[in-house]
């Protein structure tokens, strides 16, 4: 697949002293939706600003569709990059109607051409009939659709979205994410969006870049990052797992308080060395029994299932069960070894 955005060894500094992004590389293919995922202060928005041209590079190169847009000395201004940007507050003009907002950037088109383009864009985002309304007369989801229609109207080479769903009600967020992803795929849009929500990233992105202190810890599909995290940081950020102390006794076998467990080492771990096994809830199956040294510590109702925390010789592990269990219930433990990783 042809690369749309290519970033090599990018470094950005504030005040020429504070390094925010360091030796960062990223390739985004045409028509791909990429998520920059990470905690506040990790550099997500800084990277978005650098791509948009709002923050100059200290070093490195950035190419868009084969054209150099920044290399630290040669810099293409934001208005010449053909990059669209959507903010979390939508940034609509409150004094303009929906159709006027969408038409705002179409300076080179005739009045008739503008009208046709606006109609096409509003039909695309399912807002036909809302042309004469003002932003304050729309819901948050509708305002976001207008912002997307405005950005897509002038056919940007790349679309940047900063926390695009953070101001949307939870009830409609997942539906809106699905709708917008479908629109982007229909139009072949290349997009990069920022979020701190792994659920949004899983639902919206083709690929995810987990960021930490100005670097990309791991880049790949959601399943690659979830099931094959390259570090404990990535595993912990994507969540849903726990760690069991272990000792490596062979190439595939690890000795634990729950018995021998087969696992794949993600790092160089010597034989007889102590380590930790990453266990997702699906790896630990528990069942009620009359007597056991392992008991249920916590129970969390998740709607379609329950999640349990168990005490296994001092280790707190997240487990799943096919039956309802009470706090304090002694349980038997079965470890499913497929996909267990050692760090």
UniProtKB/TrEMBL annotation:
Signal peptide (residue range): none
Alphabetical UniProt keywords: ATP-binding, Cell membrane, Ion transport, Iron, Iron transport, Membrane, Nucleotide-binding, Transport
Domain ABC transporter, chain residue ranges per copy: 5-238
InterPro entries the record matches: AAA+_ATPase, ABC_SmlMolc_Importer, ABC_transporter-like_ATP-bd, ABC_transporter-like_CS, ABC_transpr_FbpC, Mo/tungstate-bd_C_term_dom, P-loop_NTPase, Transp-assoc_OB_typ2
SUPFAM superfamilies: MOP-like (SSF50331), P-loop containing nucleoside triphosphate hydrolases (SSF52540)
One Gene Ontology MF term: ATP binding
Domain of life: Bacteria
SMART domains in alphabetical order: AAA (SM00382)
PROSITE patterns: ABC_TRANSPORTER_1 (PS00211), ABC_TRANSPORTER_2 (PS50893)
PANTHER family the UniProt entry points to: SPERMIDINE/PUTRESCINE IMPORT ATP-BINDING PROTEIN POTA, SPERMIDINE_PUTRESCINE IMPORT ATP-BINDING PROTEIN POTA
Descriptive protein name: Iron(III) ABC transporter ATP-binding protein
């Amino acid at each position: 697949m042809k690369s749309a955005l290519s970033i090599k060894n990018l470094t950005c500094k504030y005040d020429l002293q504070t390094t925010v992004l360091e030796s960062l590389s990223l390739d985004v293919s045409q028509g791909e939706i990429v998520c920059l995922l990470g905690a506040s202060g990790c550099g997500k928005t800084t990277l978005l600003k650098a791509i948009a041209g709002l923050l100059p590079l200290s070093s490195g190169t950035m190419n868009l569709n084969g054209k150099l847009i920044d290399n630290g000395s040669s810099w293409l201004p934001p208005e010449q990059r053909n990059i669209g940007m959507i903010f979390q507050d939508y940034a609509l003009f409150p004094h303009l109607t929906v159709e006027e907002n969408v038409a705002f950037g179409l300076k080179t088109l005739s009045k008739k051409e503008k009208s046709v383009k606006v109609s096409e864009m509003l039909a695309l985002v399912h807002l036909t009939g809302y042309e004469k309304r003002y932003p304050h007369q729309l819901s948050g989801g509708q305002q976001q659709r207008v912002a997307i229609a405005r950005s897509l109207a002038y056919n940007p080479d790349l679309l940047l979205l900063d926390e695009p769903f953070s101001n949307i009600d939870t009830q409609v967020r997942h539906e809106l994410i699905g709708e917008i992803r479908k629109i982007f795929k229909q139009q072949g849009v290349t997009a990069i969006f920022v979020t701190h929500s792994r659920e949004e990233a899983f639902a919206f992105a083709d690929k995810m870049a987990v960021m930490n202190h100005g670097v990309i810890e791991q880049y790949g599909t959601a399943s690659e990052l979830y099931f094959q995290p390259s570090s404990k940081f990535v595993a912990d950020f994507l969540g849903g797992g726990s760690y069991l102390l272990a000792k490596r006794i062979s190439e595939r076998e690890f000795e634990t308080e729950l018995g021998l467990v087969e696992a794949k080492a993600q790092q160089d771990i010597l034989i007889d060395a102590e380590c930790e096994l990453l266990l997702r809830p699906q790896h630990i199956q528990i069942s009620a029994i009359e007597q056991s040294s392992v008991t249920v510590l916590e129970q969390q109702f998740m709607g379609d299932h329950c999640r349990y925390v168990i005490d296994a010789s001092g280790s707190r592990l997240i487990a799943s069960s096919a039956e309802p269990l009470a706090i304090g219930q002694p349980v038997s433990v079965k470890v499913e070894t497929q996909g267990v990783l050692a760090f």
